[in-house]
Amino acid sequence: MTLTDVRSGFATTVSSVAPARRRAAGARGARGLRPQDSNLDRKAPKACVLPLHQGGPAAQSASPARHNGRVADPKRTPRSRMTGTQRRAQLLDVSRTLFAEKGFDNTSVEEIAARADVSKPVVYEHFGGKEGVYAVVVDREIQALTGALTGALEGGGHPKALVERTALALLSYIETSEAGFRILVRDSPVAQATGTFSSLIGDVATQVEHLLADQFTKQGLDRRTAPIYAQMLVGMVALTGQWWLDARRPQKAEVAAHLVNLAWNGLSGLERRPQLTKGTEKVTEPARAAARP
Fold first, then answer.
1. What DSSP designation does 94 have?
2. N or C, which end of the chain is more exposed by having fewer CB within 10 Å?
3. Residue 64 above 60 pLDDT?
4. Domain boundaries, the chain
5. pTM of the prediction?
6. Which fold has domain 139-291?
């Protein structure tokens, strides 16, 4: 074999292999393989996992930073800030209701603060404690009732009309200020500037005493007995008012008529169906308005 024959055979071999390689490369390209991926049995390399401090998967799935603040309730309407006067009035109203429901001894500063939706120091800031707020509540009620009864007595007129107006004034106060009257009829645990209910009734009896004394003089009776009758008359009205506070029957006009029936006619001269003097109820309307705190 000559050199020429060897060269010719080698060229033929190369020329036949090249197209085969090109066809294989085309097939790999059709399957989306790179030249270095010709070994299909080789496993794919593992994904690179970053360390935790560089933001790895564990760090990415960690819970967000904790929020220490209070979460606002979207359904809750924000409260407007009260002035000092408004807050004081609110505390008095709340305390008045609690004292009427539970009495002084069974009411605590904690309950007052809780119902007013404030802290205990707010109550102490305005009133100095439970005794302070109680004193203010009682003083307000005493002034309201005193104004109503005094207005009824200052109207003048016939003694029978005075008794009628006084009885109606007390019953009207009970009707419009039930909580206040419940507080007044309890024994006061602290000294009050204007006194308790019993001392108030004593003050009213003193005014009635002067009115009765004048009438006794006109009728030839001993005016020195006027204080006794004044205490009996006012005490009868006051105790009847305490009874009517819970009974509420019959109507106040009928209760007042029966009071006057006993006070004016006495047991020996009681009327079968007593009625108030015509126009008496209209006169007591201003007194009813004065009784509202």
1. H
2. N
3. no
4. 84-133, 139-291
5. 0.62
6. Tetracycline Repressor; domain 2 (1.10.357)
